[in-house]
Structure formats: C-alpha cells, structure tokens
Amino acid sequence: MEILLDPNVAYLLLVAGLVFVVLAMVSPGTGVLEILALFVLMLAGWSIINLADANQINWWALGAILVGLILFVVAVYRVGHLILLGISILVLVLGSAYLFHSVIWYVPGVNPVLAASVGIATGGFFWVAARKAIDAGKERPTHDLEGLIGLTGEAKTLIHQEGSVQVAGELWSAESDEPISEGARVQIVGREGFVLKVEKIQQAEA
Question: Do 6 and 96 belong to one domain?
Fold first, then answer.
C-alpha cells in the first residue's frame, strides 16, 4: 500500500474516481461504473487521509481547486467565456500540482506535467460533455408528439382511417374522422400513440 502514499498516485486516483462518477451518472444502471467509481474513490480517500495525517496536504491548494471548480461551472453555463474556462483550468492545475507538500516548499508535490496533462484533458472532456448536455436540454424533442398538436401540415396521401401527413419536416402516420384528399392542408388536433389525429383546414372563400 506504500504506492498509494505517492502524491502523484493519490492525485490520479482522485481524478479517475471523479471521472467514473460522472460516467456512472451519464450511464446509470450498469452497476459496473458505480462499483468502479466507489472502489477508486475509496483508494483515493485512503491515500488523502493518510497524507493529511502526515501533514502533507496544502489546504490553500485545496481551496484553489474549489475556486477553479466554481469558475469552471460558470464558464460552462456562460457560452463564449473560453477565457474564463482557461483561467479555471489554470487554477485547477495550479491547485492540483501543489495539493501535496514536497521536500522543498516551492516545488509542486504532484508532477506539474502530470497535473497539467490531466487537468487539460479532463477539463476539456467535462466542458464538451456539459455543453452538449445543456444544448440537448434546450432543444425541443424531435419526437414529442404532444408538441405537434396545433401545428399544420400537408396530407401526403388520402387520409381517413389511415394515411400520412408531413409536419415540421417529418412524415407521420395520421387518421381523420372525415376523408381528406392528398395535398390538402391539415391541422394536428390530437394523437393516439404514434398516430396523429388531423382535421382538414377549410380554405377561405375568395
């Protein structure tokens, strides 16, 4: 277990554990990622606790990491703030490098190349993943049938007990109480499962 007291190993375990936690949240239910995240975080926790007992942790560096995380979250939610993103990653790398004491006070306890590589890689990964998740949440679901109610479209076939209608650039199965000829303008008034209920739009007389 002596290797777990190496600051570089403790740092890698901590970062790996956090990455596995995020992956487990994105893909829940497998059980494998959850167990792996728990196991790695337990090892990281054991390393950090023992290093803390040996008075090898720089608490100001831990505070810098927390500040970096806050700046990172702000950068994620404020589109276009790449400078803030860069500052947050820089603060995270600095805090990570000096998280543990070394023999000489001004020398980082964690290899700075390792801290920079891991910080940039994980920061970039989390930023891209978070931005995609936020953008996806803002988009209207393509197959939200309830969202189609009230929209207008065009009958692509004769519609009565069955037929097809094009709405919002997509082709849907449709039915109507009265026969509707091909090419007629229709309005979506309801749905039954994945079948849209439509009515013909009466053209105003000239």
Answer: yes
Domain range spanning residue 36? 2-138
pLDDT in tens, 59-106: 898 899 889 888 888 888 776 677 888 899 999 999 989 988 887 878
**Residue 136 contacts residue 109 (beta carbons within 8 Å):** no
The values of phi and psi at residue 90, to 5°, are -60, -45
User: Is 10:111 a contact under the CB 8 Å cutoff?
Assistant: no
pTM of the shown model:
0.57
Structure tokens at 63: 């505070």
In the predicted model, what is the mean pLDDT of the chain? Answer: 83
- Provide the residue type at 45 as one letter: G
Q: What angle do CA 175, 180, 183 make, to 5 degrees?
A: 110
50 vs 99: CA distance, rounded Å: 14
